[in-house]
């Protein structure tokens, strides 16, 4: 647990034990991603949608103190150790919490940070997709073709010698459940783009590249390639503020 999350941990008594999971603050202002993502979308997305997953996760766990010290990621990866009647809610809300926490950090204000990947991640994108532009095209296509609400990901395969792959997940699932390590993700639920882009998901997907936080993607790729770190995948929540055990 980080110092920051400890200070906002509310588990001081039985009546507040359920408030263990906390909403991580946005790492930038609501309007910092303008004009590609508007401030109102960011406010609703973070303060309402993401917050609701945290609230519902806490209320789902309220009657199960033995689960309240577990990270959201641990809960996702160990659903078989949770009560059957809670699993749907845990999968949805812990998944929503994990994915959105990753998503805010996958973006940064346009023009800040590295404009493109370099080093090991750039080499891997060349190796597995034929280059950055080809990767972006395939990622966009996957996002466009995903039916309904879900996410599009760049992940490192556990198989195939650690090749990079693009995958999509429905609802709030996560490639970690298939053993693949997430490097980059985009939210293609309508709530992520509808106010500004309406039904034009394709336009949102194209515009989103201006916001990608390549430094974070490179950091995650370096972590995924670290054999010692790989053994600690279940502790990946420790890389996301508010998700530590
Ligand atoms: Mn979302």
Structural key phrases:
mainly alpha; disordered N terminus; Helix Hairpins; single chain; binds manganese (II) ion; 2 domains; 10 helices; 9% strand; 3-stranded antiparallel sheet; 3 strands; 245 residues; minor pseudopilin epsh fold
How much beta, percentage-wise? 5-15%
Strand order across the largest sheet: 2-1-3
The H-and-E topology, N to C, reads as: HHHHHHEEEHHHH
Low-confidence blocks of residues: 1-17, 233-245
- Percent of residues in helical segments? 40-55%
Taking the alpha carbons of the first and last residues, their distance comes to 6 Å
Q: Measured on Cα atoms, how large is the radius of gyration?
A: 18 Å
What is the number of independent domains?
Answer: 2
Main sheet summary: 3 strands, antiparallel
Mean pLDDT: 87
The total of beta strands comes to 3
- Give the CATH H-level superfamily of the largest domain: Iron/manganese superoxide dismutase, C-terminal domain
- Which ligands, by name, code or SMILES, are bound? manganese (II) ion
CATH architecture of the largest domain: 3-Layer(bab) Sandwich
Task: Assign the CATH class of the largest domain.
Answer: Alpha Beta
Provide the CATH topology of the largest domain: minor pseudopilin epsh fold
Gross morphology: globular
Structural class: mainly alpha
Question: What's the arrangement of secondary structure elements?
Answer:
Elements: H1 3-7, H2 39-60, H3 72-77, H4 87-106, H5 119-129, H6 132-145, E1 150-156, E2 164-170, E3 181-187, H7 194-197, H8 201-208, H9 214-224, H10 227-230
Antiparallel strand pairs: 1-2, 1-3
Helix pairs in contact: 2-4, 5-6, 6-8
Bound molecules: manganese (II) ion.
């Amino acid at each position: 647990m980080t110092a920051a999350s400890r200070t906002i941990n509310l588990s001081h008594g039985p009546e507040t034990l359920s408030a263990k999971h906390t909403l991580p603050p946005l790492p930038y202002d609501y309007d910092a991603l303008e004009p590609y993502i508007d401030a109102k979308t960011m406010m609703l997305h973070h303060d309402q949608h993401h917050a609701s997953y945290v609230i519902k996760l806490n209320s789902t766990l309220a009657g199960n103190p033995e689960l309240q010290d577990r990270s959201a990621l641990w809960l996702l990866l160990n659903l078989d150790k949770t009560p059957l009647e809670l699993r749907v809610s845990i999968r949805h809300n812990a998944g929503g919490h994990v994915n959105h926490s990753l998503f805010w950090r996958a973006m940064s204000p346009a023009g800040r940070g590295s404009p493109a990947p370099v080093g090991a991640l750039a080499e891997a994108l060349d190796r597995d997709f034929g280059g950055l532009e080809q990767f972006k095209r395939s990622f966009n296509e996957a996002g466009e073709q995903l039916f309904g609400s879900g996410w599009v990901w760049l992940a490192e395969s556990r198989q195939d010698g650690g090749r990079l792959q693009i995958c999509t997940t429905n609802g709030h699932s996560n490639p970690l459940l298939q053993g693949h390590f997430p490097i980059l993700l985009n939210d293609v639920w309508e709530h992520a783009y509808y106010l500004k882009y309406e039904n034009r998901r394709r336009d949102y997907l194209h515009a989103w590249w201006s916001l990608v936080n390549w430094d974070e993607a490179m950091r995650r790729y370096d972590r995924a390639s670290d054999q010692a770190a790989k053994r600690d995948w279940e502790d990946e929540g420790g890389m996301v503020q508010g998700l530590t055990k």
